[in-house]
Amino acid sequence: MKIRPLLSTVLACLPLVALPATENPALLGYDAGTAVTQREWERKFQEGVSADHIRENMRRLSARPHHVGSAYDKDNAEWILAQFKSWGFDAKIETFQVLFPTPKTRVLELLQPTRFRASLREPALAADPTSGQTAEQLPTYNAYSADGDVTAPLVYVNYGSREDYEALDRLGISVKGAIVIARYGEGWRGIKPKVAAEHGAIGCIIYSDPAGDGYFQGDAYPGGGWRSKQGVQRGSVMDTDYPGDPLTPGVGATADAKRLSIAEARTITKIPVLPISSGDALPLLAALGGPVAPKDWRGALPVTYHVGPGPARVHLQVASHWDIKPIYDVIATLHGADEADHWVLRGNHHDAWVNGAEDPISGQAAMLEEARVLGALHAAGWTPRRTVIYCAWDGEEPGLLGSVEWVETHVADLQKHAVSYLNSDSNGRGFLSAGGTQDLGVLVSEVARDIRDPETRLSVYERARLSGIAEAKTPQERSDLRKRADLPIEALGDGSDFTAFQDFAGISTLDLEFGGEEAGTQYHSIYDSFYWYTHFSDTNFVYGRALAQSAGTVMLRLADAPFIPVDYAPQAEAIGKYEAELETSLKQSQDEFAERDLEIQEGVFAATVDPRKPSLPPPAEPVPPFIDFAPLKNAIGGLQRSAARYSRALATYRAQGSPTLGAPALKKLNADLLAVSRGFLNANGLPERPWFKNQIYAPGAYTGYGAKPIAAVREYMDQRQWTKAEGQVPQVAKAVTNAAANIDKAAEDLEAALAP
Ligand SMILES: [Zn+2]
Questions:
Q1: Spacing of C-alpha 665 from chain mean position
Q2: How many whole angstroms from 227 Cα to the centroid of ligand 1?
Q3: Alpha-carbon 188 to chain mean position
Q4: What is the per-residue pLDDT across 226-278, written as a single tens digit (0 to 9) for each?
Q5: Where residue 397 falls among pLDDT bands split at 50, 70, 90?
Q6: Ion ligand 1 residue ranges (Cβ < 5 Å)
Q7: Which among 294, 345, 425, 682 has the fewest CB atoms less than 10 Å away?
Q8: How many CB atoms lie under 10 A from the CB of residue 462?
Q9: CA–CA separation, 156 vs 158, rounded Å?
Q10: What is the phi/psi pair of residue 292, to 5°?
């Protein structure tokens, strides 16, 4: 195999020039003395991380397909286990038994007006050596699709969001009894069959349009890095009720767990679904008649996009082997010296859809290098204050199976002991992005100031901050960013292994990734390979090294800080913004529906619609009533006061020269800090989604991936159920008040420790 010269070897030998210490004088959570030793260990750690080791980890882990249930998935887990043990971790594999469907039958054919049979395969490429491992590759499919055999007219539904179906309604087009074809993009793929079924469709095809990640973006693989006409995005289409094993919601999928029947599992789709390439989609889209698709529905295939229905008529057949398969989570522990019962957790998944060089091995390879160097520090005399736990998750791709089942199994212990969970998944070239709970925002910003961007030699903090300003949409947003002394931390919903920690267990969470400058993507394809990654992404693994340095330094800070390095001011500010967004959204709906009503009465739609291209006016909607947000606003006001009180205590601590606190004071303070984020939980969960306990951080039921903060209220608002939305306000307010009370306790502890 021909690979690029090892530029990383050269870079790794360059002396690491320290960033000016004045940029970052104090360390949150550290007394002055400990901070000095800490910086020495951190410097050793950062210097120890090797890009070449990350490359070799990737070569090994992505050498063969390693999906759930495959031989190499288990082989990788055992190899990872052996690595952790060799680095001095107390490591083991925890096994769960999960429902994991694999393809039995896949047929897609166009029957009218012409005949075409979709290939449903990604061919091997001579340039990409692992693409020829056909015997071990999972065929292209969407996991947790219902079995079905349907024949019906075809309708193009754009991304298949709820808004897209409203547009179809206005065109007078129904998908009842039809098979829909949706393009990938705009939210979680599992939403597409869910919404299609809710509108009466009987089958769903999802394709990769070249406008999204193919030749419209850049040269296609293997000449360039973008998805070729034959590239297919596999992926789970599990419904959004709960993540994890469909048969064991809320409890660990241990061998003897009580299981639902497959028929009872609410997260399996209602209709059959199949993903296809743009090459397979082209004849289907070309055969559609009916109205020309709205302008922003058109992709980059060489046809005029029509909506249908028909005359294209298609036959879709999907059947799976519904097997229970073992998954292997590798759990590796370094026991803490002083606070062994407080856990700092770190994770990245190891399973992939196929070879998965980028997703997830780019993250896994960096995490392992991080753990190797921590092991080396340990051998050289460093022992963490708290217990450090590294987790290599299995089964993330089908539905966060490994992390969800593990958290469900250990939730009582986690809620007692877990300080935080730091996640990564895929990594690439570019800017640091940090998502999670904003109580960790000051910490991650401090660390990002200490890590150098490998290509520009700016700190990764500065580069992320300036890219934020470049991308800001309004002058207000830009000026807000310029005023900040920390990186804004984006709220997370779901989409990777942090989900159960944050949404189910109420644990402070971070997710780190570099990206934005890769030359393409082969997401969930056989071409997401070592060859692709080393030619089109972080080719010399310097951003892998930057990820290991950043995440590892966050781990060191969290593990060693005499008191847990959190600051609640950015979080209280963010939650205030989420509440303000609820009010803005309500006002927008009120204005929009009032205007719509007026225009209907004035006859605006009747007068402006082209009589030859009939479309219906949007349906009149009653103007939403005012919602009483007062209980929530009062609670958030209280939270902001409590957060400010704790920040003031931190400032006093620094003003006093960051003195060493006594063991009893630290014990009380840390116990109270650890409890703060549990306050945001409500044991009953969100209405209609009881698995999601966190009242601030959750994904949307119809968007997925990104956060829908304050989902209990916001989800009902988005569904125009205003009374139900208002009914949720007190419950969220109560959770916010609980968290504020916990912060007050911590503030009191720190104030008492500092009192003369
Ligand atoms: Zn992943």
A1: 37
A2: 18
A3: 10
A4: 999 999 999 999 998 999 999 999 999 999 999 999 999 999 999 999 999 99
A5: very high
A6: 359-360, 425
A7: 294
A8: 16
A9: 6
A10: -65, 140
Q: How far does Cα 747 stand from its chain's mean position?
A: 32
Average pLDDT over residues 284-309: 97
Residue by residue, DSSP assigns 166-233 as HHHHHTT---TTPEEEEES-SS-TTHHHHHHHHTT-SEEEEE--HHHHSTTTSPBTTTSBB--TT---
Q: Residue 702: name the closest of 716, 691, 721, 722 by CA.
A: 716
Contact present, 246 and 144 (Cβ < 8 Å): yes
CA distance 95 to 93: 6
HSE (side-chain half, CA atoms, 13 Å) at 68:
29
Amino acid 756: pLDDT: 82
**Mean pLDDT on 145-153:** 98
pLDDT tens track for 36-74: 999 999 999 999 999 999 999 999 999 999 999 999 999
pLDDT tens-digit profile of 373-392? 999 999 999 999 999 999 99
What separation in Å is there between the alpha carbon of 639 and the centre of ligand 1? 34
* Strand pairing class (509-516; 142-143): unpaired
Quote the ligand 1 centre to 360 CA distance (angstroms).
5
> Are 178 and 284 spatial neighbours (Cβ–Cβ below 8 Å)?
no
Whether 704 and 492 have beta carbons less than 8 Å apart is answered as no
Lowest-confidence region among 174-183, 302-311, 555-564, 604-613? 604-613
Residues 6+ apart with CB under 8 A from 114: 283, 287
Helices (H), 519-662: 530-536, 542-560, 569-602, 604-608, 630-655
CA–centroid distance, 349 to ligand 1, in Å, is: 7
Over the stretch 631-643, which tens digit does the pLDDT of each residue have? 999 999 999 999 9
Residues contacting residue 14 through CB under 8 Å, at least 6 positions apart: none
Cα 702 to middle of ligand 1, angstroms = 21
> Which of 97-101, 583-587, 607-611 comes out lowest in average pLDDT?
607-611
- Residue 746 in tokens: 């911590």
pLDDT for position 20:
47
Written as six digits, the tokens of 314 are: 């298609």
What DSSP string describes 29-70?
T--HHHHHHHHHHHHHHHHH--HHHHHHHHHHHTSS---TTS
pLDDT at 3 over 50: no
Contact between residue 366 and residue 424 where contact means Cβ atoms under 8 Å apart: yes
For residue 25, the model assigns a pLDDT of 59
Q: What pLDDT, on a 0 to 100 scale, did the predictor assign at position 609?
A: 85
Q: How many whole angstroms from 62 Cα to the centroid of ligand 1?
A: 13
Neighbours of 656 (CB within 10 A): 11
Mean residue pLDDT of the chain comes to 94
Other CB atoms within 10 Å distance of the CB of residue 47 = 13
Cβ–Cβ under 8 Å, residues 555 and 382? no
Residue 361 scores a pLDDT above 50:
yes
From ligand 1's centre to the CA of 653, what distance in Å? 41
Tokens of 542: 């310097």
Give, in order, the Cα–Cα distances in Å from 669 to each of 69, 281, 735, 745.
45, 59, 21, 8
Q: How far is the CA of 33 from the centre of ligand 1 (A)?
A: 40
Q: What residue spans of 400-440 are helical by DSSP H? A: 401-417
Helix residue ranges, H only, 104-149: none
Q: 423 alpha carbon to ligand 1 midpoint, in Å?
A: 11
Rounded to 10 deg, the angle between the 630-655 and 569-602 helix axes is 150
Q: CA 722 → CA 415, 552, 627, 686, 727, distances in Å?
A: 34, 45, 7, 16, 9
Q: At how many degrees (to 10) do helices 441-450 and 569-602 cross?
A: 110
